[in-house]
Amino acid sequence: MQSATQEDQLELEAIRDFKKGYVYFLTSLQTLVASFLQFLTAGSISEQNKRDLLPYRKALDQELNKSQKQIKDIIFNLDEKHMYPMVKKEYSRYFQGGYADGPRTEFVQFNLIFEMLRNFAMESKESWLEIRKSITSGTFHDPVFRDDSILNFRIIPALEKIDQLSILLKRMAYVLDIENYKSVLETRNTKPKFRENLQYKLSSVFTENLYQENLVANTEYAGPLPGLDVDESIISMRSAKKEQSAEPKPAAKIDKKPQDGIINFIQAYGKYSWNSDQHYFFRFEIEKYVSEKAYFNQTISMDTHLGADEQMLRSELIKSLSSIKRKNKTSEEYETEYLTFLTNFFDFIENIIIMNLGIPNQLKWVFLFHIGPSHFYMIAKKFLMEVNTGYLHVQSLDGKKVTRIIPGEVVKKHVVDYWNKVILPNVGEEKNNLALLKRITEVVAEKYKEASARAMAEYEKLPAEVKSSKRIDELFRENMNHWMGAANIIVFKRFVKNKSI
């Protein structure tokens, strides 16, 4: 590999903060802007300096507040629960033939992030340069205050941050194969081009000698080199045959994939920030789901009980393995039976949770809504494993081995479907009632206190030699699921430990 050119070394050094992620850089810029705002309103500035600053205060306040809002919005959109729906929505602008996870999704996301950062840089740089020009040429009775407190400690560092962002955008534009990538801040329209085997990740911009065709790879892509994370390697093909525009292509040229049309996420949001956070968002991986769905083709038996005697289950399993039952059931029948079991099982665990926690019946649906699909899945998975049910008995292709599997992505998809079909239709405007949420939280918190007291009592019952063998926190970690109930702990963490409620 060639050593990095001087230009490349300088650029890589300038954007080193981005190695910790977009949000790390944006947060540092946000802190700089916030400290500038705080400085302007602080009582430590002399009256004379305040009067000298007055002609520039309006422009400064407007730019600082605008920057704060823009950075906050970008950080908000970078969160997966917000970025993922944006990618789904924008996907059809770039590709036809239906949405599918993979390199094209990464391309759309990478370009969306590029455009968000580019718009911010274009607007901010012009404003900050104008402010610097005005203050530099302005009249200040205390030039040290102007040069150090305003320019050197605040305005120039902000401009340096924006310059670092501009370098990142230049390198992102090159990865996106945008023409005139060196002047991306000088034009409103950009036309990215998609290349099949290029990884569209932040790590791409850190490739040494990026502009010297360093993205070229072998014509066959076999994945990242051993020992490297996927996000640390970049493998691309720049041959003309592989290069293609990201503009929509005729549908006839794209093969329709079987997973097209599957909605693999749910945003069960309310009206407010407190019921629109990560607890109300949930997704599953389409490729994993399709892979797990294929297990039904090799399934010879299933555990679909709601908590039966272990010995009886073993007896039934032996019978099913030695029978011709499989020949009389299609994969579709097994799948239908399994999904029906999941629906019944979800209803079963709902009733157990509500009974254990003492949730009033009239609050059942709003309580389940606020648990959220993500925590509900965790509870369901925990119950499945504790009750020893929900397993598929999957026979290997050679017929020599049978493996018990809980198809996690199938369960996740059913949670999404269950939320759409059962939970959401049964909860109305009460989901936006903060008083009801606080009431639910109080009920759960009271049960948490009771469960904690029981757990402490169980700890006290332990033999002295057990207590002396380990620290108390270690013993609690080992026994907590048994003492407090694994599913209950998940609910406690959702409500009692949640600082946003």
UniProtKB/TrEMBL annotation:
Keywords of the record: Membrane, Transmembrane, Transmembrane helix
Membrane-spanning residues: 21-40
Protein name stated in the entry: Uncharacterized protein
Species in which this protein is naturally found: Leptospira ognonensis
